[in-house]
Amino acid sequence: MKTKPPELAIKHKFTRELFIRQQGKILEEQQPVFSYIIVQSDSAIDNDTLLALKQIPEFYHFLNSNTDITPLSGGDLALIQHFIGIGPKIGSSLVRFDENDRIVVIEGTLKGIEGNIIKVDKRKQRAKIRVEFAGTVHTMNLSFEDIERKV
């Protein structure tokens, strides 16, 4: 008998909006932010809940391991809270470029994590950011809109 996912958990699955240029056309595409499923719970997870979570199709293993489950804390928790505050769909950030051609974030996902930007591609309107999560360094592309280009 297949167990239903627990009701006490909130499953957060973040997607990011990217604009892909194909054959001269710009298409909007949704891609996952992390290859993780984030489960938020107010209480300790009992054995029945653990079994139910393992039945979720996208489930692979718990953070650290299935025998040593580690709750998020510190920088990992702050990063997830940053994305939870934005919502499940991460759209484009509004940016401009200063006189030294450095990116200045006005609003959006990149706001507050400007120090993590490692590369900017103005033509594709993407910023590559470097984040550390669960002891592993990840890079991801997030889209932006240059407000000066819109005018």
Describe this structure in words.
This protein has 151 residues and is α+β, with helices and mostly antiparallel strands. It has one domain (10-150). It has helices at residues 47-54, 74-86, 147-150, and strands at 10-12, 15-22, 25-32, 38-40, 89-90, 93-97, 103-107, 117-121, 126-133, 136-146. The strands form three sheets. It has a five-stranded mixed beta sheet with strand order 7-6-10-9-8. The model has no long low-confidence stretch (mean pLDDT 79).
Brief summary of the model shown:
The chain is built from three helices and ten strands, in the order ββββααββββββα.
Topology summary:
Layout: E1 10-12, E2 15-22, E3 25-32, E4 38-40, H1 47-54, H2 74-86, E5 89-90, E6 93-97, E7 103-107, E8 117-121, E9 126-133, E10 136-146, H3 147-150
Parallel strand pairs: 2-5, 6-10
Antiparallel strand pairs: 1-4, 2-3, 6-7, 8-9, 9-10
Describe the sheet with the most strands: 5 strands, mixed
CA distance, first residue to last residue:
59 Å
Query: Uncertain regions: pLDDT < 50 for 5+ in a row?
Result: none
Number of helices: 3
- Name the strands of the widest sheet in spatial order: 7-6-10-9-8
Count of discrete domains: 1
Mean pLDDT: 79
Q: How large is the radius of gyration?
A: 18 Å
What is the percent of helical residues? 10-25%
Beta-strand portion reads 35-45%
Q: Helix- and strand-based class?
A: alpha+beta
What is the N-to-C order of secondary-structure elements (H for helix, E for strand)?
Answer: EEEEHHEEEEEEH
**Number of DSSP E strands:** 10
Overall outline: elongated
Organism: Treponema bryantii
InterPro entries: Rib_uL2_dom2 (IPR014722), Ribosomal_uL24_CS (IPR005825), Translation_prot_SH3-like_sf (IPR008991)
Protein name: Transcriptional antiterminator NusG
GO molecular function, one term: structural constituent of ribosome
